[in-house]
Design a protein that fits this description.
By secondary structure, this protein is α+β, with helices and mostly antiparallel strands. The protein is built from five helices and 17 strands. The strands form three sheets. Strands 1-12-11-15-16-17-14-13 form an eight-stranded antiparallel beta sheet. Strands 8-7-4-5-6-10-9 form a seven-stranded antiparallel beta sheet, with helices on one face. The longest helix has 23 residues.
Length: 369
């Protein structure tokens, strides 16, 4: 598929916050019933803050490893993104568009009421960008790894999901902008002293959707990895943007939201690079890296949906009902991540040393001969 022109590359403007839904529970029972935000179910951003040590899904400090990234580009502009601490505490996983141009990078954990519990820095050479990243979104290559100047030892890093998680409900978190889903105004930094969270479902992957719905589909566009797509549902058929696109091409992509709907949200500016987490039964696994957002009306218009202007609840709000977002799937980049973060065991170093000694000895023998 050619690059979709209407996807908003929010990296340039601080990249991808969560907007709390203003919908009451419909009473259905789902696995997320016990994960209702401890701060309440209303739509105010203050009710979706997460605090250091906060318990979500029975896990204390579930979002302590979510990082706030503040960076200065080579042109001197200042921006913000999010990220996730990996196991071992030395590396942070984020989006490529948050790491491909900076001269200064600060990484903070436990950002609450305007101050951080832990602060680290990243050197200019400390970012590893996926080799497939070209600046085009939705290719599955919007992923990067940051090496911290010192390991974080008092926060548990996240293990990675190793499976395709389409259809799974997930917890999303970031340090970006916020708004109420029904407000027809842009997301803002009014609650920027805090990180925010919500829930959604990985509705489909971009390759599957576009192979059926986009006449210009090109399979080679997705050769680098998988992108998960979600929409912001309010329980109605109109705001079920992915479902409406599916109906256009004879596919039943009709998920109309999680239960309770009051927990559903969407990422926004500043959340790019932040994490989507799936529940393993015992812990939260890092499954997706926030990449892009797309207005519902624009998306429906692009795919030829009938009455496309009814897909988006609030056209001026980039994270309102009916809008879409995409996240790079972690499972499709396990090799890339391991190639950067894997540290040889002590015995491996010993074998390497022996190997180098053998090579040196052989070289001396050849020289003496």
């Amino acid at each position: 598929m050619a690059k979709i022109p209407t996807i908003k590359l929010l990296a340039a403007a601080a990249a991808l916050a969560l907007t709390g839904a203003a919908q009451a529970s419909n009473g259905q029972i789902t696995p997320l019933d016990n994960l209702i935000p401890t701060t309440g179910n209303t739509s105010a951003p203050s009710n979706w803050r997460f605090a250091p040590g906060q318990t979500i899904g029975g896990v204390a400090g579930a979002l302590d490893g979510v990082a706030k990234l503040s960076f200065t580009t080579n042109a001197g502009a200042n921006y913000a993104c999010s990220g996730s601490l990996l196991e071992g505490g030395q590396y942070v996983l984020t989006a490529a568009h948050c790491a491909d141009d900076f001269k200064k990078m600060t990484v903070q954990f436990g950002w609450y009421n305007g101050s951080a519990a832990v602060t680290r820095n990243v050197s200019v050479g400390g970012a590893t960008i996926h080799s497939g990243w070209t600046g085009d979104l939705d290719t599955g290559a919007d992923i990067a790894i940051l090496k911290l100047d010192a390991p974080v030892t008092n926060i548990k890093g996240y293990k990675l999901s190793t499976t395709l998680d389409v259809g799974k409900e997930h917890l999303m978190a970031g340090y970006g902008t916020t708004n109420v889903a029904t407000n027809n105004t842009a997301t803002n930094w009014n609650d920027s002293g805090y990180g925010h969270y919500a829930f959604n479902t990985f509705d489909i992957d971009s390759k599957t959707l576009n192979s059926l719905a986009d006449p210009s589909y090109n399979a080679d566009f997705y050769k680098h990895g998988v992108t998960y797509m979600v929409d912001f549902d309010d329980g109605s058929a109109n705001r079920n943007t992915i479902g409406r696109i599916g109906a256009k091409v004879g596919q039943n992509w009709s998920n109309t939201g999680i239960s309770p709907l009051a927990n559903e949200g969407l990422i926004a500016g500043g959340d790019s690079g932040g994490g989507d987490f799936v529940w393993s039964g015992t812990e939260w696994l890092l499954s997706g890296v926030h990449s892009w957002g797309w207005g519902g009306n624009s998306a429906c218009g692009y795919y030829g949906v009938t009455n496309p202007t009814t897909c988006d609840n609030a056209a001026n709000n980039g994270s309102s009902y009916g809008d879409l977002s995409g996240s790079t799937a972690v499972f499709s980049h396990l090799g890339f991540i391991s190639s950067v973060t894997a540290v040889p065991e002590p015995q491996t170093y010993a074998l390497m040393a022996l190997g180098l000694f053998g090579v040196a000895a052989a070289a001396r023998r050849r020289k003496q001969g």
